[in-house]
Amino acid sequence: EQIRDSGKLAWNEKCLTAPEGTFSLSVSGLDIDVKNLHLDFDLPADTVAYYTVILTDGGNFYPYSFPKQALIEAVPSTSYVAMHPYGNVTSLTIEFNIPADKTFTINEISVNAPRPLMIHWMRMIILYVLFVFFYALRPTGKTVHIPFDVNNRAQNSITLVLVVLLLISGFCLSQSNKLFDEASKPHHQQYKELAVAISEHHTYVVDHAAEELINAPNPYDTIYLQANGIQYQADYAYFNGKYYVYFGLIPEVLLYLPYYLLTGNHLSNQMASFFFYSIFVVAVFGLFRQILKRYFKELPYFAYLIISSMVVTCGTYSYLIERADLYNVPIIAGTALTALGLFFWITGLNAEKYQGIYFLFGSFSMAMVVGCRPQMFLFSFLAFPLFWHYVIKERKLFSKTSVLHSVAITVPYFLVAGVLMYYNYERFGSPFDFGATYSLTNNDMNLRGISIERMLHGCLSFLFLPINMDGVFPFINSMEVESSYMGRLVTEFFYGGIISCHVLTWILFAGGFFKKELKEKHLTVFSLLALSASVIIGMLDANQAGVLQRYSADMAWGIFFISAIFLFILMEKLFRTEHYRFGIYFLTIGFMLQLAYAFMIVFAPIGGIYIAKYNPELFYRAASLFHF
Asked: Which of 12, 23, 52, 225 could form a disulfide linkage to 230, CB 3.0–4.6 angstroms apart?
């Protein structure tokens, strides 16, 4: 047995202390049939030891290597790995990658060790749930033939249970990446710093910048700043020698500031993300309930549950919740408030009493979106087709007899606009300047200008970039967004387009078959406007910021929302027909495919911030679901 290492190793009987680096254990002169490898190590908690097996065998005179493997003590199945060499193994080397300053004990390394029976309870539960799911929703079963009834107590109870399960899942997801237990980097503390600033009656978070930054020829050229050793605070808004927070004010006012004033402590970004995701889930189920009540006569109840679940579990949103950082809080907040606003508006249209109150809450929700993601304000224009019949045909709005309703819809926008404009003026001297262009980020956003070509490249990527898969868990990889654009197209990791990766949206390609139904339900203009708003938002994001995974969520809501409406129309057309089974297959299989995509995104490598690094036990327990 021969030991080689690339660093200094300290032995104490079987205990090995290794600095960061690699060492290898080698055995030569073998001639055995190797079926598996067993590594019995004692490792510190949350420590992963990576290793690579290199061997020669009957079919390979020169050494070749197998894929890198991981060993973590909390997941016993990782200590066994099946091997498939060409004939008998003649030499074997195991090369270990040692984390910095870790101590572990080598108990035994053996080949062809009897593997004990390991019952993977989670895999069994998941398989059982899948079996029950597909069996209960088989076309010949009774479940799929039950019509939706808004007043049915049993259905309402089932819906409530499903919503609670989704909320629990969302909470677990928000806590999955331990990096975000505390803000991962200083600039992720900005909402906390802003809470302190506002409590002290000012809007800046730092009132003095480095003298070198103040005197820099272009303080927004951060590459120049780094090259010349000029200190600056990344991703803050820098203006006239002070640092500000350019992220939306509304999450601060709704959560961070009240929490700080009441408790003296700071709210974590994780809990803020979960709070807004909870609003989103409840709002979507409530919104679709009101849509079915208003626009659809008869629809299967299971379709309501599946379609609503498909929207809230999209990979676009699972990414936001798992990576609960500062960037994603205003995005999920804007999405949640948009869904909530539409819920209140349509509820008001359906209601016989208290319509004004519903309109008031709806407009407040939609107006506050501007203080989260200003570009998502475009979804407020859905009010025009939504209230068109109510205003023009029935004349129940903006008339002498409905002054209160008119005030309820319009005044919230003026109130929220007044607060935001005053906040902007206090910071940047202009009521219309939200400060994004002053961000000390990876490019000078003051000089990006307007480029139609950049908009088109970005929007097409947001929508149609294909998924990049391989055979290693989590089976999905980020990709580079490449283009022929002769300029700077700011990009980061990306995991595929909204339409190309979500089965829910594929129904849009059949939209032409629903012209009659959309016209009868007065939803034609509404649908076109929602989709147009999404595309415009995508183009604005691509032009002003770049093509990033999180920015796809800005435009996603309108696409997912209208896709859901199209699916409701499809299921209404197919219900009680001989072709109904095809709709059932599409929803059930499509839902599972979307869940798989959302699951993969959660565990996918994300620019150095991923679960495998910060919660390895969870990552390798998930990976073990696919190891047999």
From this structure: 225
State the Cα–Cα distance between residues 246 and 193, nearest whole angstrom.
12
* Two structure tokens written together for 281: 């889930």
Amino acid code (one letter) for 598:
A
What region does 100 belong to: left with phi over 0, alpha with psi -120 to 50, or beta? beta
Contact criterion met (CB below 8 Å) for 354 and 344: no
Please, are residues 190 and 252 in contact by the beta-carbon 8 Å criterion?
Answer: no
* pLDDT tens, residue by residue, 248-272: 999 999 999 999 999 999 999 999 9
Residue with the bigger pLDDT between 130 and 612: it is 130
Using a pLDDT cut of 90, give the percent of the chain over it. 61
pLDDT category at 615 given cuts 50, 70, 90 is confident
User: 547 near 461, Cβ under 8 Å?
Assistant: yes
596 — phi, psi (to 5°)? -65, -45
For residue 27, the cross-strand partners are 92
Can the peptide bond before residue 474 be classed as cis, meaning omega within 30 degrees of 0? yes
Beta-bridge partner residues of 82: 36
Q: Provide the 3-class DSSP secondary structure of residue 94.
A: strand
Q: Which of 42-51, 365-374, 485-494 has the highest mean pLDDT?
A: 365-374
Based on C-alpha coordinates, what's the Rg of the chain? 28
Please give the Cα distance from 505 to 566 (Å, whole number).
9
Tokens in use for 255?
């959560």
Torsion angles phi and psi, residue 339, rounded to 5 = -60, -40
Alpha carbon distances (Å) from 209 to 238, 332, 449: 9, 31, 27
User: How do residues 172-227 score in pLDDT, each as one tens digit?
Assistant: 999 888 777 665 567 788 999 999 999 999 999 999 888 999 999 999 998 999 99
Q: What is the pTM of this model?
A: 0.91
- Beta carbons within 8 Å of 172's beta carbon, 6+ residues apart: none
d(CA 85, CA 160): 53
Nearest Cα neighbor of 316 from 186, 183, 469, 494 is 494
Please report the DSSP string for 37-70 in residue order: EEEEEE--TT--EEEEEEEEETTEEEEEEPPPEE
Please answer whether residues 365 and 346 qualify as being in contact, where contact means their C-beta atoms are separated by less than 8 angstroms.
Answer: no
Based on the number of CB atoms within 10 Å of its own CB, is 434 exposed (0-12), middle (13-18) or buried (19 or more)?
A: buried
Helix (H) or strand (E) holding 447: none
Hey, what are 555's tokens?
């435009």
293 near 281, Cβ under 8 Å? no
Instruction: Determine contact, residues 383/409, Cβ cutoff 8 Å.
Output: yes
